Amino acid sequence: MFAPPAIAFSSLLIVSVAAAFAPPPPRQVARSVSLGNASDGYLVGGRTLGDRGPGYRVMAATRRRGYTWGTSELTDAIRRGALEVERQYPKSTLVAANLSREGGGDIGPSVSHNSGRDADIAFYAVDERGRPVASDQLVLFDGEGNNAPSGLRFDPVRNWALVKAFLTDEAIQVQWIFCKGALREKLLLFARRAGEPEELIARAADVLGEPGNSSSHSEHFHLRIYCGLHERLLGCRNYGSMHAWVDDFTDEVMARTAQLVASFSNKDDREVGKAIELIGAIEGHTAGPALVSFIGSERALSLRFSALETLVKLDGLSALIPSLNTVLRNRAMGELRLRLVDSLSTIADSGSAATFLELIARRGEPPAIRARLARGLGRMRHAAAVPALSAALTERREVSQSAQEALLRITGLSFGAGKRAVMKWQRWWSDKKDASRSDWMLEAFAERGVKFDAKRPKRSLSKLVALMRQGGTLAECAREVIFHLSGFALKREHYTDRQMYRFYRSWLLAGAR
Full-prediction pTM beyond 0.90? Predict the structure, then answer.
């Protein structure tokens, strides 16, 4: 698979990784750079698709909004795709809708399109006589590929030609081409009948389909491309599926991470700080042990804080949890110790649960630490913490509130604070300690009016989704029960409470079982 040529890192360290993903000012750079991920990233040195070109034009509404920007890889790929379809089928016009803003960031109702690697493209359509029609509006097609009001039909011939052009373009790697499931099947069927190579059809099957967290895409393709090599080494992040045939530049990221770790010995704190930030930006997972050692070092406290923040961004930290727990047991760490508790709470690895229980039982731990320990036990969903958390309900307000929130996360229940609440929890624990957390949750929601009927599961799912509207801890519990009942789950990291509610409601309306 094509890998863009590497260029000198010094020429790409744009405003220190765009000031850790703050929106950068428009500027001319040698090459466009997508930073962060598609949902919360930005675009540096983007290129505009313009209003029109050979074989394509941009919708008027998109031009007015200024959503015509993307990386050079994306905009060039769209131009090449349009040219290829027009070459095969003269007088064809690709109609582009939303790409990104000039500097990236949120656009309208979309949860992606933030970092210049996403583009909406209208389906190619024909009229009742089979003549090409390029509407300036997105046309909604049903499962048969028809739009009854306009008489337009989805054209599998040219739409497949565009999909093929993107998948065979050696300058990009395609992650998704979202579209309605029934239209996907039409495209794959056409490709098979046309005798396309099986490998190409298999790749198309991988990238085509409806997203699980958005509309069905009945009116347009949504193209997303993976980060290029030069972008990965600056902090462009992919999320979601990594197809087997894609080069994710693992070796290059590991090599760059090793270089950055080696710079920790530099006496210039600013250079070390940049290296630590960049490790987090590129998700340099192999730096984990070095970061743990750095946190326990004698370097500037601000750098150790930064190392801790970076560590939390990395995956595969389970092997490092014992070392972090050892550091945590040291009382003489001040603010760093508070931040370490917060970080371990965010990681929420069960390997820290025993240490958290040990510390929350210690006499003399400051309330700020105790509150954070309680919060962390809740995030770990540690069932055995119920007695310790309920005992904390008579402590100072910050500790008591954290304990209540943790108990709600673990059991789905809240009895308030104070001595009466402690007594209620003691009785509850005596009766329920041998039951599973799933049973605790189901019982807790039954008390909130969510009746679970195996013959009518959608009714209970509907009530759970409705409870998600208010967000917060109760919404997290509702999502957990939905997963237990249906197996459906949406990752939390990229979405607001409102977006999560909307996605789950769409899933429910689409026929959840």
Answer: no
